[in-house]
Amino acid sequence: MVGAQSGGVAVALVGVGPRGLSVLERLLIRLRSSPYRGEVTVWAVDPVEHGSGRVWRTGQPWWLTMNATGAEVTVRSPDSDVPGGGLVEWSNQAGWPHETVGPVDYPPRRVYGAYLKDTFDRMRASAPRNVRVRPVLGEVTEVTRMDGRYLLTVDTLGTPLRVDKVVLATGHGAQQLSDEQRRLADHGEDRYLAESIAADMPLDAVAPSASVAIRGLGLSFYDIVRSLSIGRGGRFVRDQSGRLAYRPSGAEPRITAGSRSGVPFLARPRFDEAPETAPRPTVLTEQRLDDLRTAAFRNTGTSQLDFAKQVEPLIMAEARSAHASCAGRQNRTRLGVRVEDVGQPFRGKRFSSPQAFRLSMMDMLRTDVEEARKGPHGSPVKAATEMLRGIRPLLPSVVDYGGLLPGSHRDFLSRFAPWSFIVSAGPPDEHVEQLLALIDAGVVDVVGPAARFEPDKQSEGFTVESGRVAGSRRTVDVLIEARVPVTDIRRSAAPLTQHLLADGVISEFVNTDPITGEQFASGGLAITPPPCRVINDAGVVNPDIYAIGVATEKTRWFTQVGTGRPGKDSPFCREADAIAGDIMSSLERDSRELPW
User: Fold this and answer.
1) Is the pTM for the entire model greater than 0.85?
2) 4 with 150: CB under 8 angstroms?
């Protein structure tokens, strides 16, 4: 067995993307100031690349970009003692052979990955003398308890790792197909591309002559479309009038896309300077939320909230306030579109033909690009959507660990969260303008809202149509799922998750109303509030295994990269520090009693 040297302890980081990296940073910071001087081994295990992980790996093509600006991104804590700074500061250091990132640039994901990878290397090199950070490239498939410690089976090692503490930071993982997806996959065999990140999809196998349907109009949709267009040699050009046009290479397939809303993710506003790092809520305050919970407990016996009735009105009030403030600065007498309607232009509408829908959608997208280019200080609509984006770090305190009533929790995840992403988590405006050019060129079409995707009974292909656009039905050769796999431990295809579930080491978080008994089985991993210890199937907390990041999605909300800001505290930093602090407390407490 491979473990710490005699007289020491070992910690395993299972997954070393941004969240695992944040735990490593906090652990090293605490070890530097700890009186403990025994040997500490940190096994950093990742199947793809240390620091960047799979999603941000450095080998991705240039056209896959972030939807956050350079000034908004960091993996370091405010008190980090490792040189390098945030992404912008790091990229502007002399001597680094990488692309420079400005404060308002939307960098390629591979550049962020290079930043993460370099940060891992720097952290490893800066570890205290009694600490060794040992990277292992491989996938952990089993964790078993033996003689008071844990054995980790790694698919690339012949001998298990023996450790005292385990941190699960596994990120996005593959999911088993749902019944509906299995039906589509069985019909189309190799013509069905299951949900994944675009960089992992076998898009090169899609023939230039193929007709393709894409289910989903979010960030993955933009990634896939860019891969099948400029990734195949096409290019965008601007004519003398300033209009953007697409020049096909001839290698593009014909693309039809659709979703429930029929709305592609809208553009983030263009910034002239680094975006504000956080809003200053005037309605949705911590005190207001505390008052709501106190009142809820007094009236119902539980402090769980109804999001739609109690919290959502406060969020919309903040958005309307941002909208009105921007309009007031421009002396506008009318506020124009209602904030609640942004991202839902086709709600309740029917269209007489595909052409009628196409014209309506393109008009909406052109307006969106125009508003985005005014920026959050020039567009009341974009001021409101940036407020929605900015208050994301406040919502975990509302949603996490059963903060909502079970039915409200389900409603939040299925209704409000998707809508908020459409309006506030979109790509830069140039990507939306490029989508318009692709539609103009006949390379891409959007079928409409209430899109349905079915096996075609007459061929090995599929049909796609909008339930609200007359004459929209068409047949395609290939169906691509443009959705990042949703975390659901019941459907996880990861061997480690399956093993831990089967052994009862982890369990699903079931949100329960203690008064009525109503339940919502979330599909999320059950953990405690920070330090985020896992809970087994008997409801017992494990003091040695922790989980952070996407692995805990649905138990918590918004666990992806996106709330950290250079020089600012963040929920991610606090959670990583809580895990590191708990590990160190245990280490310092138990070190006197260890037999070595």
Assistant:
1) yes
2) no
